[in-house]
Design a protein that fits this description.
294 residues; 45% strand; five-stranded antiparallel β-sheet; mainly beta; globular
Amino acid sequence: LYVVDSGHHRVLECTHAGRIHRQFGSGGAGFIDGPMELAAFQNPQGLWLQRDALYVADTGNHAVRRIKLSTGDVDTLCGAGRAGTPTEGPVQDPRAVALDQPRAVAVSPSNIVCIATAGDNRIWAYDLGDRSLRLLAGSGRMELADGEGPAASFVGPSALAIVQQILYVCDEAGSAIRSVHLRTRQVTTLVGQGAWQFGNVEGSRADALLQQPQAIALDGASPVLWVADSGNDQLRTLRLGGGEVSTISLPQRLHAPAGLAVVNGIVWIADTDAHAVLRFDPADGSLRQIPIGD
């Protein structure tokens, strides 16, 4: 279980019972590559596990970092430590690429690192093969608009999930769930009525309303997208393929959840404002806190 401890500028590797195996990052804010105990992050947010690497949206450093799990070493894929708009093309110097508040990363089966930058409302694509960066989608304007590539617009993209050639985007300020076709770059709104329209309505996609969702996750064995509906303190599901939005009944209310992971049918929730990690089992409806510590 990997946990972003944003306030302590670190990433934790834990057992499913919460015992900490390793800490990546010294615990102090900084922008330092190298061994895990010396490396430094600044307000990291999103994570993505791909084989032997853990990719980190290092939001405070405006960078995408990578943890090599075999050694624990940290390096920088791209990010200059300051906000800016990158130039598309080959990345010669990773520290010369200025991103703008990357909140989430997701790696496609073809080794493309998709990066959601909330500061400029865009989705970027970094190719691990040729080390190049290109714009995947987003005009930069804050609006909920569908279209192809730069013709589309986002409103604070904050989380990503991938299945095959479809990238799902949690558009936080737009209270929306979007999809991007990785080949055609077509952006489609699945749930969401407008840039500043929010609420708490389940049912058909045309009627459903969310309020500032901050996290999404997919379970490979089920055609369901899980949604942390942070503004409503709820856990929601969106059935893919035209299905409805549903609200999951939980034994307790959540507190602005901002992280999700689903593995083998178990939903792991970062209940952020409660500073807690929760384990939810949909099979029996149980929800329990996992104490994180040594």
